[in-house]
Each structure stands twice: as structure tokens, then as C-alpha cells.
Design a protein that fits this description.
Chain lengths: 1036, 147
């Protein structure tokens, strides 16, 4: 227990700030052996503290009030009880909250510190926030504005710690302004500025509207923040300011930050080149060094910001407005940056003995190598980077091997193939050897990723053989998931690079034969193989022949049987030289009894196909089906019955026309993208983009598909999904792809009729609601903002927050409402009611899990809360959103409010700023695709005049609005005055819909105002586009 | 882009320090989250495995290091580079060590409020605010001496 963490043994920091009472209490608790004894001790202490607190409250005489030290001691004991009970005793210590607030007002530093610290720990609990937040915030603002630097520091820390946990601070103008004042103040102490910059970042992350809500403020404030960099000698301040600027560059206004590139380059150059120079005068101040190398924190932060500001060649197509491309950086600075990269390589491959120093210099190496790709690197520079990384692969330190691999995988993904190939060829043996010896699972994973990313036509055989051998023999990989992942990668690689068809078939079948149990991935692999074989006639025969060999083996896997059942059923006539149809029938009869029902179904189909090829086996087939008429499984029974009937009908009419039509040859599959690609996990994108060599052959035969009958086996349905537009966007989130067009269209049709049917609702409870006079403001706001004020009057303020409790189910929304009493009187008898538009006949949305109010009365300036969930089942108009009524008594009169909360189709969009959006060409492609698929059915257009005029830059405010709604906006500047946005609408019952929106702004025909033309296309033919446009119109 | 949380656990899995800079998903139970983390980390082979756990959840990876009986763990974003956070942990432990004078778990138990003081002087909103040990120790010393 008393083991030292073992770093140094400097003198102790001992001071008079220790609290004896607390130390004794902790020692007491630790010495009690039994938990009962501990519990008794805690309870005794609690009641003592409670008594002290209450008696001090009763005595009005100020001299008898609790002394500050006493209060601090009791609060610290409460904090310890909370910590040591692992937060379970939260409710036991809540009585002390008021005293904590009291302690917060103290002018003694250690007392104020104790109060802030305890509240920081407790603020993760909503009940604590609800009870004291107003008082705490008031004191916080006072402390921020105060003149005592130590107090200001505590207040800034508090914001930095709880700012993201509790949203109120980021919406409190006083807090925001005070923090910003410190940033801009020329006289504020340096350590306060550092804290203020990061606290401000915390607020901004929580509420980006602080800067995006007001363009004028944005320009002004960003300028102020950027000017903090002007003092480039001050590396300390830099460290805190850089993350703030990076956030602004990423999410608020990149173009304002681009001008920093020369300045940042200069600092980076000084750090790296100056910091490693032997010349004294250029040397970096010693205190900015860490473990004998230039400061890694500063360097990683600089590089991280530069990476945002400079875009690489591959990113140009994404048309990211306002960012700079390497070719536009002046040669001087570009040269400096490149020099930094080579310096980092030199540094990173240097031999040092201290492990910490090594990790630090590698940090610099990895950070700069990852950045190098942005600098239009020469082939030589790239291969230098790769060589440096490869040399680290044999490091004895696991961390370094891990990080080197991580960088290599990234490097391979972005570089020209030829460069990396030449380097990796030299190291292929090394990497394969590592694969066999490595013990760390995550490193293994990276090795596999690396091998995957530099596989090409030349080395595919070697690499695939290694990987196959690895999953067959390795004892290190215990989890099946990894085996499955590698199998998928092998399948993709063989398809993508195989030039030798025999080899392709051989490997694919071997892969299937080793799968121990049928899993989802294995299904994908055999389905994909079947598609490729069907589409490539030259594979029909050899695949079936090899399948027969596998099937003759008694231990063959079920996936092989399934593949065999499908393919041999199709092409049995091609292999009659090897095996007769009768023998095939016997072979499948044997296998039939050892497989699952799904595969049994397939074998039944195989049987009738065999019969089609050779009617002479008829009696055996009929007997077989007859036997299965008694099957317990309804599907097997039905199939047997149907097939039996088909044979009977064929026999009675005397020809095979019916059989031949029903079981005619499989048409080519039409899916260009390999569904397996989605299973690759988090590999960098570009390495998986290439089209497969085998698949290209399919496109030629696509024409023949047009007239083919709608005949699809089970295997094809999953593949069909991947062709529906936009599904690739959703798949990254692990969300189910949009339903195929044909299905969603028929569903929508039934949906379109529902409003007509519901006309009777005019008389419903919903329509009889009398909404409060200014309900519209909150309604409109809640459509466009996820949180804010729903209603505000002199009596009451209602705040709302709309969240997605389960990221997997975006169709479920949670609404949290907070009611704040604005008066000096108690509000009592509070009750609320939620009303949905429709309760029966398959409603569009349903309200669930309505929690009861946290209290039915609200004391003056206090708040209560309520939450409920809304499940969106299918598209609906935002006007039909939830109505929320509240009744309460205040100051003797009864108040009634009826408000509508704006939950619309756009509320189900995934609001994910991290994810890269589409490029313009992709967008246009999808736009056309939708047009071709649905014609005018899926489109809706509306021309509006924006209510808020006057903003100089309409496009950028439109982008903000769309992003706020949750759309992804295509970054482009080639078409001005137009904003392209996309998103996925989620519903519970009718699935997800892709949605594209185009906003075009123009001067109206009468010439004196602006007009916006909103056009929306969705993957649904119904009114969904109109519903979406309505929501956008409200948000404008 | 930043540290999501800092957690310090002892070998038995008892939480000694915990600070959340980001809110956990509302359906995530804090206790369960921490005990999952403990189970994963304590089961790892510290000789042959790295100090990184790549996908702890779908938005968090872990960087951790064991010092005697204590695990220091940071949760970071998936896009972050791991190695700098390992240096962050090391710096944090070095400062704790100098501040308490050869720190041990008991120091952190008895002086939990001072340990938090060290943490808050180093990290705000999930970002490191000062990297010089001397500057940090001077400031901490001043705060410690204040009434």
C-alpha cells in the first residue's frame, strides 16, 4: 500500500494547509477493519456535521456562526465520504450543499478552494446542479470579475472542469464575457490568460453559437484571440492558445486562421531546428525542452493546427473553402516545414537510452511524418519517412512498435503506391516475421492493416498466403473477431488483385473451409464469392469442381456446403464428367442432415435444380421432398410442398417449361461495391477505394440485366442494399443502410394517404388545444437548435434540450425540459401534459417514458425538470409535432401554458461534425441518381425570403444553419451562392432515408431583397422532401 | 482533440482520482464504465503489451501507465496521437512526486484535495496548460502556502 510511485525523492511539500480533523477522520476510517464499523463511523460523522450546520443556521448572532476553518473542515469531510463511498453516498451529503455555497463566498483562499473543488467533483450529478447552480454561477461571475488573481484562477478552473458537464455556463453571457475579458486584457497575468483561453475553449465546445451566432462578434473576438500568438517568444501562452485556435479553424472560421501559417511555421522551425542546434545563440531556452529534446507538446500542437490549415493534394477535391494548399505556401516557408520533417526523422532514429526520452522523440517523429503528406512530398521524402518508420519496427519497446506501425499504415494510405511499394518490399519479410512473433493483439491488428494496405497485384499471393497461414496456426489470436476480420481482408484482397482465376477460387474456398462457425462475415464472404462466380462464366466449372472435392471431405464447413448448394445447383451440368447428377444428389442428401435450417432450405432448392438437369433422378427427389413434408420447420415444409407440386405439374403437362422458367440461370449481379469493404473497420479510406479487378468485368454484362426477371436468392438481398444511394454515408456510423428504393417507395405510398384518412382528426384532442400566444418563437427555435429557451415570460422560463439517448437509434429523441421560476413567489401545483398528434392507426411518432416532474413546486429562482422520449416511426409534418401543456399556481392565480415543441424530420439527423462530408462530384452523382430513381416524386422545392436579412455573407450563415440542423455540408467554393447539404433521416418503422438539400440564394425578381430557393430530394417518393424543406424554412 | 477524462485507479480497482472533461453518453453508467476499464487494463501483460488500448469505446481510446500500485489512465479521442498523452501522464506523475515528495498512494488518499489541485493546475478542459515542472511546482507551492 505504501509503495512509492518511485520517481524521485525530493523534499516534501509540507505546509500549514493541512486539515488535522480531516486527516484524523481518514485515518480512523482506514483503521476500521469491518465495513459495518466504517459505516457507523461515517454515520456518526455525518450527524455531527449536520448538527453543526443546522445550529449555525439558527443562531442569527454572527459571532456564533461557523468559523470558516470549521466549515472548510466539514465540507472536506463530506467530499471524502463521497469519494471513499465511490459516489454511493451522494444523497447523504446533499444537506451540505448550502454550506458549500457559503464556503464559496469566503475570502480565504483555502476555504474557497475547498468549496470549488468539492463542487467540481459533485457537478457531474444533475441534482446537485439543479439545487445550487444559480447561486454558484452568481458567485463564479463575481470571482471572475474580482481583482484577486488566485480567486480568478479558481473560477477559471471551475469553468474548465465542469463547462462541458453542465451546459448552463456556456449560455450565460456574464460568464462568457468575463472569461473573454481576461483573454483580451493587456494586463491580465500570464497564467490567468492560459486558463482563460482553455476555459473559453470549453465554453465554445459546448456552445459554438458563442462565435457563430453573431458574425460581428465572431470577427472581432477571433482577431483578439489570434493576436495572442503575436508574442511568439512566449511559448507558455502558446500551449494554451493553440488548441483554442485549432477549434476555431476547424469549426468556426478557417479562412481567418490561414494567415497564421507563416507565423506557426516560424515557431515550429525555431522549436525543432533551434532546439536541436548545437549553437548556443539559436538554442531553445532550456526550460522549454523536455527530456533533452525540443518541447513535444508545443510541436504536436503546432503540427496539429498546421494540419488543419494546410490541405493535401488528395483533399483538394473536397474543396475545403479557405484552406491553403501546399503549392500556395511560399517556398521559404514550405522549405522550412520540409526541413522540420527531415529533422524529426533524424531525431527520431537517433539512439537514446532513456525510455522517456525515446518516447518523446518518437512523438515528434510520428507527429511530423503524419503531417508530411500535406507538404507535397517528393518521392524521396516519402521513402525516407517509410524507411525511418520501418527501422523502428524492430524496437524492443512495444509502444514504439505500435506507434511506428500506426504511422506506417497512415503513410501507406496517403502515398503514391510506387514509393511505398519499393520500401515495403524490402521489409515484407520483416513484417511477416513480426506477425508470427508479436504478442500484442493491437499490434497484430495494425500489422494486418499494414499488409493489407500495401498489397498489390505483384505481392498478393505472398501476402495472402502469409495471412492464411497466420489465422490457421497462430495461437496468439484468441478472439474470433480478429480471425473473421482477417478473413474478410483476405477475401477483399483476393478479389481486388487476383489475376489468376484458379488461384482466386482456390483461396476463397480455402477461406470458407476454415470458418468454424457460420457468422455474419462468413455469409458475406460466400455470398460475394457466389456473385463473382456467377458473373464470370470462366469460373463456373473450376469452382464447382473444387467444391465437389471439398464436399467429399466429411469435415467440411457449413459455408462450403451453402456455397456448393448454390453454385452446383446452378452449374451441375458443367461438371458431369467429374461427377454424375445422381452422385451429387446423394452427396447433398448426406450433407442435408448435418446443417442448419437455412442451409437446408438452400439444399432443397439445389435438389429441384438437379432434377431439372436430370429428370431421371425424379423418384429419389420426390421421395426426399415427401419426407420433408413432415418437417417441423414451417419453411422447410413449405418449400418441400411447393417443389413437389412443381414437379407434379411439370409431369402432368408433360414438359419442363415451368421448371425451366422458374429455375432459369442466375442473371449477373449488379453491385459494384464489395459489401465486405464496409467490414474493414477503421482503415484509412484511400486504401479501399480501388475497384476490384474481377468486378470490372461485371459492368459489361450489366446491359443484359435490364430485361432479366426479378429473381433473387437470399444472397442478393443484402447486396442490393449497398446500391441504394447514400448508404455509404450511414454505414460509417454503423447505422443500418437506407432501405432499397423499391421498398421505401411502396411504403411511402401508404404513408401519403394517411393525412387524408386522418382528416377526421380536425376534431381531435390535439387540434382543440389552444396554444399560448407566443408559442411560435420557441417552436421555431426548437426546430433549428438542439437546446435553448422554449418559452420565457416574467413568470417562468422554460428551457429545452433535445438529445439522442442511443446513437444506434437516431429515431428516438429525448426531450428534457427545465422550468425556472422567475418570480419571488413559490410556484405550486405544477403539472404537465404531453399530447401527440395521433395515438391510433399507426401514428407517425409516439411519446414514451414520460418521467414525472422532479418536483411539483418551484421555489423562487429555482428550477425543476422533466424528460420524455419521442420515437419517430415515419415521416410527418413538423406542424404536427408534440404539444406540451403546463399548469401551475403562482401568487394565487392559476397559470396555463400550451406550447408546441418543434420536433421534425430534421431532428433525427446525425449531428456529427467529425465525419467528413461528401465532395461536390459525389453529391452531384447522388443528386442525379435520385432523379433517375424517383423522377419528380422525391423532390420538393420552395422559394423563400429570409427573415433575417442584412448578413453580408448569406452563404456562410446558410451553412451554419444547415450544420446546426445536423446536415453535412459539402465544402466547396466552385459554385457560389449555393449550399449543398446531405443527411440521413431516421425513422423507426419505415427505415432511414437519404436526403439531399440544395439552397440557392439570389436577388429576388423585384430586385430589392434576397431569395432562397430550397430544393430537397430524398430516397423516398412521398412527402418527406416537403417535410424536410418545411423544417429548413422554419430554421432560416 | 483532447483528453476526455483522467482516472487514477489502484491495483484493486478503487478510484483514487477521477475527472471528466466530457460528458459520458447518457446511457453509460459511470461505475460500469470505470470497472470495464479496470478489467481491461489489469488483465494486460505489461511487459509485452503497449500502453494503448485502441478502441475502448467507439469514440474513446485509452492511454495508461502503471506506477507502483497505481494506474494513471487518460481517455482520448480516436483521432489523437497516443504518444503525447503518455508524456502527459508521465509529467503529471513527476509533478505529483515532487509536490508530495516521493508520492505514494496514501498521499493521494489523505490529501485528495491537493492532488486535485495539481491536476487542475496542469489540465483544463482536457488540455495541458503548462509543461514546465518548475513553473508548476512554484505555483503549486504558492497556492499551498496561501491561507
Amino acid at each position: 500500500m505504501e509503495k512509492r510511485l518511485g520517481l524521485s525523492n525530493n523534499g516534501a511539500s509540507n505546509s500549514n494547509s493541512n486539515i488535522r480533523g480531516l486527516q484524523i477522520f481518514i485515518a480512523d476510517l482506514r483503521s476500521s477493519q469491518q465495513s459495518q464499523e466504517q459505516e457507523r463511523r461515517i454515520q456518526a460523522e455525518l450527524s455531527k456535521i449536520k448538527q453543526q450546520f443546522t445550529s449555525s443556521r439558527k443562531k442569527s448572532d454572527s459571532s456564533n456562526k461557523l468559523a470558516g476553518y470549521q466549515r472548510k473542515k466539514y465540507v472536506s469531510k463530506l467530499a471524502y465520504i463521497y469519494i471513499t463511498s465511490n459516489t454511493t453516498k451522494l444523497s447523504d451529503i446533499l444537506f451540505g450543499l448550502d454550506e458549500m455555497v457559503e464556503l464559496l463566498k469566503s475570502n480565504v483562499f483555502s476555504e474557497k478552494y475547498m468549496a470549488y473543488m468539492t463542487l467540481e467533483i459533485l457537478y457531474e450529478h444533475q441534482e446537485v446542479v439543479n439545487r445550487v447552480d444559480d447561486l454558484v454561477t452568481a458567485q463564479l461571475v463575481k470571482d471572475l470579475a474580482g481583482s484577486n488573481d488566485d480567486t480568478v484562477a479558481l473560477a477559471l478552473n471551475f469553468i474548465g472542469v465542469v463547462g462541458r458537464l453542465k451546459n448552463g455556463l456556456a449560455y450565460n453571457d456574464d460568464v462568457i464575457t468575463e472569461v473573454f475579458q481576461i483573454i483580451r486584457s493587456p494586463t491580465a497575468a500570464e497564467h490567468l490568460k492560459k486558463k482563460a483561453a482553455l476555459s473559453f475553449l470549453t465554453l465554445l465546445k459546448t456552445n459554438i453559437d458563442i462565435l457563430t451566432g453573431d458574425l460581428q462578434r465572431q470577427n472581432h473576438w477571433i482577431q483578439r484571440i489570434l493576436s495572442l500568438l503575436d508574442d511568439s517568444q512566449n511559448y507558455r501562452l502558446l500551449l494554451s492558445v493553440l488548441p483554442l485556435i485549432e477549434f476555431i479553424a476547424r469549426y468556426v472560421n478557417p479562412s481567418q486562421c490561414v494567415r497564421l501559417i507563416p507565423q506557426l511555421t516560424q515557431i515550429l522551425y525555431k522549436c525543432l531546428i533551434g532546439g536541436t542546434s548545437q549553437l548556443a545563440e539559436t538554442q531553445f531556452p532550456a526550460e522549454y525542452m523536455f527530456a533533452n529534446v525540443p518541447n513535444p507538446w508545443l510541436i504536436t500542437k503546432l503540427v496539429s493546427l498546421l494540419s488543419v490549415l494546410i490541405i493535401s493534394r488528395s483533399e483538394i477535391s473536397e474543396n475545403r473553402a479557405g484552406l491553403l494548399q501546399a503549392s500556395n505556401i511560399d517556398t521559404d516557408n514550405l522549405g522550412k516545414l520540409r526541413l522540420c520533417v527531415s529533422k524529426a526523422i533524424e531525431l527520431g532514429t537517433r539512439d537514446v537510452s532513456d525510455p522517456m526520452e525515446r518516447i518523446v522523440q518518437n512523438t515528434i517523429l510520428f507527429s511530423l511524418i503524419n503531417f508530411a503528406s500535406k507538404l507535397d512530398p517528393t518521392e524521396e521524402a516519402l521513402s525516407n519517412s517509410a524507411t525511418a518508420l520501418c527501422s523502428l519496427l524492430i524496437s524492443s519497446e512495444t509502444n514504439i512498435r505500435y506507434l511506428a506501425l500506426d504511422s506506417l499504415v497512415k503513410l501507406c494510405a496517403i502515398s503514391e503506391k510506387t514509393v511505398i511499394d519499393s520500401v515495403c518490399k524490402k521489409n515484407l519479410n520483416l513484417i511477416c516475421r513480426l506477425l508470427n512473433n508479436e504478442k500484442d493483439q493491437s499490434i497484430l491488428r495494425k500489422l494486418v492493416d499494414l499488409l493489407y494496405s500495401f498489397t498489390n497485384v505483384d505481392n498478393v499471393k505472398i501476402i495472402v498466403n502469409h495471412l492464411l497461414k497466420f489465422i490457421l496456426t497462430s495461437r496468439t489470436i484468441s478472439d474470433n473477431k480478429m480471425k473473421r476480420d482477417i478473413s474478410v481482408k483476405i477475401a477483399v484482397l483476393t478479389e481486388k488483385y487476383a489475376t489468376d482465376t484458379n488461384w482466386f477460387v482456390e483461396i476463397s474456398l480455402k477461406l470458407l473451409s476454415i470458418s468454424s462457425n457460420a457468422t455474419n462475415n462468413d455469409d458475406l464472404i460466400w455470398e460475394r464469392l457466389s456473385q463473382i462466380v456467377v458473373n464470370n462464366p470462366q469460373l463456373h466449372k473450376i469452382t464447382c469442381e473444387q467444391l465437389v472435392d471439398y464436399l467429399n471431405n466429411n469435415n467440411t464447413s457449413e459455408t462450403i456446403i451453402a456455397t456448393g448448394a448454390f453454385l452446383i445447383g446452378e452449374y451441375a451440368n458443367l461438371i458431369t464428367e467429374k461427377i454424375s447428377i445422381g452422385e451429387l444428389f446423394n452427396l447433398f442428401t448426406d450433407k442435408y442432415f448435418i446443417v442448419s435450417n437455412t442451409t437446408k432450405c438452400m439444399i432443397l432448392t439445389t435438389m429441384i435444380k438437379l432434377y431439372k438437369f436430370a429428370p431421371e433422378i425424379g423418384s429419389a427427389v420426390i421421395k426426399f421432398f415427401q419426407l420433408e413434408l413432415n418437417s417441423l420447420d414451417i419453411e422447410l415444409q413449405t418449400r418441400s410442398y411447393e417443389y413437389l407440386k412443381i414437379i407434379q405439374i411439370s409431369n402432368s403437362i408433360g414438359n419442363k417449361a415451368l421448371l425451366d422458367t422458374l429455375f432459369s440461370g442466375m442473371p449477373s449481379f449488379n453491385s459494384r461495391t464489395n459489401p465486405l469493404l464496409r467490414r474493414l473497420g477503421n482503415l484509412p479510406d484511400s486504401s479501399v477505394n480501388n475497384n476490384s479487378s474481377l468486378w470490372l468485368k461485371v459492368n459489361k454484362s450489366e446491359a443484359s440485366l435490364a430485361g432479366s426477371p426479378e429473381r433473387r436468392d437470399e444472397s442478393s438481398s443484402s447486396v442490393q442494399n449497398s446500391t441504394s444511394p447514400l448508404s455509404s454515408m450511414s454505414s460509417n456510423n454503423g447505422i443500418a443502410p437506407a432501405p432499397p428504393l423499391s421498398r421505401s417507395r411502396s411504403r411511402m405510398n401508404s404513408n401519403v394517404t394517411s393525412p387524408i384518412k386522418n382528416n377526421g382528426i380536425n376534431d381531435s384532442y390535439y387540434s382543440r388545444q389552444n396554444l399560448s400566444s407566443n408559442w411560435r418563437e420557441g417552436f421555431t427555435r426548437s426546430i433549428s437548435h438542439r437546446q435553448g429557451i422554449l418559452y420565457s415570460s416574467s413568470l417562468i422560463k422554460i428551457l429545452y434540450r433535445i438529445t439522442n439517448p442511443d446513437i444506434q437509434q437516431m429515431s428516438i429523441l429525448q426531450v428534457s425540459l427545465t422550468f425556472i421560476n422567475q418570480t419571488e413567489w413559490e410556484m405550486s401545483g405544477f403539472n404537465t401534459e404531453t399530447i401527440s398528434y395521433q395515438l391510433q392507426d399507426s401514428p407517425s411518432y409516439i411519446i414514451q417514458n414520460v418521467e414525472s416532474l422532479s418536483s411539483t413546486s418551484i421555489m423562487p429562482h429555482k428550477r425543476i425538470e422533466q424528460k420524455f422520449n419521442i420515437t419517430i416511426r415515419k415521416p410527418f409534418e413538423v406542424e404536427k409535432s408534440v404539444i406540451f401543456n403546463s399548469h401551475f399556481k403562482c401568487g394565487g392565480s392559476v397559470q396555463f401554458l400550451s406550447l408546441k415543441i418543434g420536433i421534425g424530420m430534421t431532428s433525427t439527423l446525425v449531428n456529427n461534425v467529425e465525419q467528413p462530408g461528401m465532395t461536390l462530384p459525389e453529391y452531384i452523382g447522388r443528386w442525379r441518381q435520385l432523379r433517375e430513381g424517383l423522377g419528380n416524386d422525391g423532390e420538393y422545392q420552395l422559394v423563400v425570403r429570409p427573415k433575417k436579412s442584412g448578413a453580408q455573407d448569406l452563404s456562410s450563415s446558410l451553412i451554419q444553419i444547415m450544420k446546426r440542423l445536423g446536415f453535412q455540408v459539402v465544402e466547396q467554393d466552385s459554385i457560389s451562392n449555393t449550399v449543398f447539404a446531405s443527411g440521413i433521416i431516421h425513422t423507426k418503422s419505415t427505415g432511414n432515408y437519404g436526403c439531399l438539400v440544395k439552397l440557392k440564394s439570389a436577388i429576388s425578381s423585384d430586385g430589392d431583397s434576397r431569395e432562397i430557393e430550397i430544393t430537397c430530394r430524398t430516397t423516398s417518393a412521398g412527402s418527406l422532401s416537403k417535410y424536410v424543406v418545411d423544417c429548413i424554412n422554419y430554421a432560416l | 482533440m483532447a483528453i476526455q477524462f483522467i482516472i487514477c485507479l489502484n491495483k484493486q480497482g478503487t478510484v483514487r482520482l477521477v475527472r471528466w472533461y466530457e460528458q459520458l453518453d447518457s446511457n453509460e453508467d459511470t461505475q460500469r464504465y470505470i470497472s470495464n476499464m479496470y478489467r481491461l487494463i489489469s488483465a494486460r501483460d505489461h511487459k509485452n503489451q503497449s500502453n494503448f488500448i485502441e478502441s475502448f469505446t467507439d469514440k474513446t481510446k485509452l492511454v495508461y501507465k502503471r506506477y507502483a500500485g497505481l494506474y494513471f489512465i487518460m481517455g482520448i479521442d480516436l483521432a489523437d496521437e497516443e504518444s503525447i498523452y503518455l508524456s502527459n501522464i508521465h509529467l503529471f506523475v513527476e509533478v505529483l512526486d515532487s509536490f508530495f515528495g516521493n508520492v505514494c498512494e496514501l498521499d493521494i488518499v489523505f490529501n485528495f484535495y491537493k492532488a486535485y489541485m495539481v491536476m487542475d493546475e496542469m489540465f483544463i478542459g482536457g488540455e495541458l496548460q503548462e509543461m514546465s515542472k518548475d513553473v508548476l511546482l512554484e505555483r503549486l507551492g504558492n497556492m499551498d502556502r496561501l491561507d
